[in-house]
Amino acid sequence: MIRFDNVSKTYPKQNRPALRDVSLEIERGEFVFLVGSSGSGKSTFLRLLLREERASHGAVHVLGKDLGKLSNWKVPQMRRQIGTVFQDFRLLPNKTVGQNVAFALEVIGKPRGQIRKTVPEVLDLVGLGGKEDRMPGELSGGEQQRVAIARAFVNRPMLLIADEPTGNLDPQTSVGIMKLLDRINRTGTTVVMATHDQQIVDQMRKRVMELEKGRLVRDQSRGVYGYQH
Amino acid sequence: MRAQFVLSEIGVGLRRNLTMTFAVIVSVALSLGLFGASLLMRDQVSTMKGYWYDKVNVSIFFCNKNDADSGANCAKGAATTQQKNDIRAELNRLPIVEKVSYESSDQAYKHYKEQFGDTPVAGLVTPDQLPESFRVKLKDPTKFAVIKSAFSERPGVQEVQDQRDTVEPLFNLLNGMNIAALCVMGLMLVVALLLIVNTVRVSAFSRRRETGIMRLVGASSFYIQMPFILEAAIAGLIGAAFACVLIVGGKFVLVNNWLAEKIQVINFIGWDSVVAVLPLVLLIGLLMPALAAFFALRKYLKV
Which InterPro entries would you find in this protein's record (chain B) (predicted)? Predict the structure, then answer.
């Protein structure tokens, strides 16, 4: 599903690499936490997965493709198989919940009939059934994040990338979001989640990868958060 | 679905940048209006050239008996019949010559009277002061130099004169104006292009949320860029339409109603030339902003 072979990434005009010689493999259907302090390289790792950046050295394989060799015009096709969720939700404030989810399908040219059928289904799945016509501003943070997850999942991606999805939420709401992500994981979707939330990592007991100054310093199945911050 | 989606995006974009859109429309209209006008001016100049060059001749003036001291060629007084006949025979042999006609002193005097009949100078001139001449019509009026070099040093020839010299300053003036119009057009075009680039930048910035999401969910770059490009193309097309109105209006008011009344010796361009220019103006108005937007997007919209 995901394989890094001795991957390093140095941004232009910077001496210190953001990622240093990282090698790892993530299998289909896994749930992986990515932990590490700010500036440890978590975001760079996720950007490499989405091919927003290219590795300076080494090879990144995602969904069976070598992203270093993937030509630019094939990148959108690849991203359709990856769902993404962010700390700040990234919803369109002037569109309703339903339109926000539908937007993801419209812009990749899905037929209208299919959109009308899929959107309520996926909103039901994330627990927002019947809230299709609400505006994002009227919803709580947890509900907004559910909308974002619905949008990420509406294409039934093979891989879901979550960048601190609970960063803006209170602990109780976070638990709800994690249950949802766990459910999505059980449908066979691989989930990679970067987080700072110690409680959640310790509770879930999933595989934990820790980055420190760009190096992979720990890779532990059924791991814990592991360090104090 | 796609079309509807794209159209609504364009509508939102154009309204959001109303002032910029307006600036783009105005500058495109002015630059393309000037572009069309200068094309028509070129048409006008060539129409006039054709008209005038058809009428002008090369004149070979002969010495008459008063010219003895006016030049070496005339040292022997009036040109002899032999000299004139030689020159006429040679002219007729030249392939570039279309027709040779003879104007005697009396005929020259008559034309002179027609032109200056009412003025005081007319009384001072007598037939024998005016030289005899050959009026040579050339197949190609620009080949004047051939005639000049062949005959101006001949004994008995006082002067070889190209009548184009009298109309040339007018054409030079018109050409000069044309070049000036093209320069202004070029500047306006640069302004229009910069405005489009800036509009696209503002537009891309104000929609970075949408485009960011589109990118994440895997919309193709074509799909992301199309609304911006169409926006620029539509603004450009509206500008070009205004330019067409300016051109047609200019032809109607300036040429038909004003110049054609004032100056009747010139035949002005017709509606057919105007109609030929309009599609070009519209096409440029459509493509140029679209291309500018396309290149601006590579810089301001990460895909």
Answer: ABC3_permease_C, FtsX, FtsX_actino, FtsX_ECD
Reading the block at residue B231, the tokens are 């926006």
Q: Do A77 and B224 touch (CB under 8 A)?
A: no
Interior angle at CA B145, CA B140 and CA B151, nearest 5: 110
Look up the ipTM and state it.
0.85
Provide, as residue numbers in chain A, all residues whose Cβ is less than 8 Å from the Cβ of B213.
Answer: 90, 92, 103-104
Residue A64 vs residues A1, B12, B218, B279: alpha-carbon distances, Å: 6, 39, 17, 51
- Say yes or no: B3 contacts chain A, CB-CB below 8 A: no
Distance CA(A94)–CA(B148), nearest Å, equals: 81
- Both tokens of A55, joined, read 């590795």
Interatomic CA distance for residues A224 and A221, integer angstroms: 9
Q: Which residue has the tokens 């500047």?
A: B187
Tens of pLDDT, residues B40-87: 888 888 787 777 777 777 888 888 776 666 666 776 677 788 888 888
Q: Which of A107, A114, A122, A156 to mutate to test the interface with B (most CBs of B within 10 A)?
A: A107
Chain A residues inside the 8 Å CB shell of B219 = 76, 107-108
**A76 chain-B contacts, CB cut-off 8 A:** 215, 218-221
User: pLDDT digits over B166-196, tens only?
Assistant: 777 877 888 888 888 888 888 888 888 888 8
Would you tell me which residues 71-100 of chain A have a C-beta closer than 8 angstroms to some C-beta of chain B? 72-73, 76-82, 84, 90, 92
How many CB atoms lie under 10 A from the CB of residue A70? Answer: 16
Minimum-distance CB partner of A90 among B2, B213, B221: B213
pTM value? 0.72
C-beta neighbour count of A27 within 10 angstroms: 11
* Residue A54, CA atoms < 13 Å, CB-side half-sphere: 10
